[in-house]
Amino acid sequence: MGAEDYLPDDPGSLAALRTAAEGCHGCDLYRAATQTVFGEGPPDARIVMIGEQPGDVEDRAGEPFVGPAGRLLDRAITEAGLQRSDIYVTNAVKHFKFVPPERGKRRIHKTPNRAEIVACRPWLVQELAVLRPSVLVVLGASAAKALLGAKFKVTESRGQLLPWPDAADRPEDFPAEPSSLVATIHPSAVLRSDDREAMFRGLVADLRVAAEAL
Question: What is the tally of structural domains in the chain?
Fold first, then answer.
């Protein structure tokens, strides 16, 4: 089973996709999550940023990138010369996967596995089909693998303006699009770093590559 069983009959708008995704049981992550966290942003966004999955704050709020990592991403977007209000942000996986918390502690993120990423991928495919952005920004390894396959390594290709993969390298269910993409770290990696300032500057530099591509 996967998300394809829950797609609307006419997935031609973000509103239709968002409504349908609210009832998605395409993998078991919905059982523990508070709600589906779908993408948000203008339907004519030229840049789409794709992260891994919602976090604790996003799961409770029902909105992507509104927790600590999201606030850091906002700062990086601004310093890169972009406007958050012009960008569509979403995740490869739409439900929060976490380790059950100890008493009084925030639920701790757990990386989604390959089966969960694949099960949720139809939502991302349809988002991109509706949006048709000029530039994709892939935030972190899980998002990169959802888009570009398990062999893609962010550390080897980050900060480069890459072409949208051709049919030989693109997952079969992704349509051919005239998009470019930039891979970079997830903002949560900055928060975990011992040298946050250097990591943040690297994230900003990567986002500037996306800004300059417009």
Answer: 1
Query: 8: domain CATH number?
Result: 3.40.470.10
* CA distances from residue 77 to 107, 128, 187 in whole angstroms, order as listed: 27, 20, 11
Query: For residue 37, what are the domain limits?
Result: 3-213
d(C-alpha 118, C-alpha 147), whole Å: 10
pLDDT tens per residue, the chain (214 residues)?
689 999 998 888 999 999 999 999 999 999 999 999 999 999 999 999 999 999 999 999 999 999 999 999 999 999 999 999 999 999 999 999 998 877 767 788 899 999 999 999 999 989 998 998 999 999 999 999 888 888 888 989 999 999 876 544 555 555 556 578 999 999 999 999 999 999 999 999 999 999 999 8
Looking at the DSSP bridge assignments, the partners of residue 91 are 51
Strands 47-51 vs 87-91: parallel, antiparallel or unpaired: parallel
Residues counted in the chain: 214
**Cα atoms in the Cβ-side hemisphere of radius 13 Å centred on 185:** 20
Within 10 angstroms of residue 30's Cβ, the number of other Cβ atoms is: 17
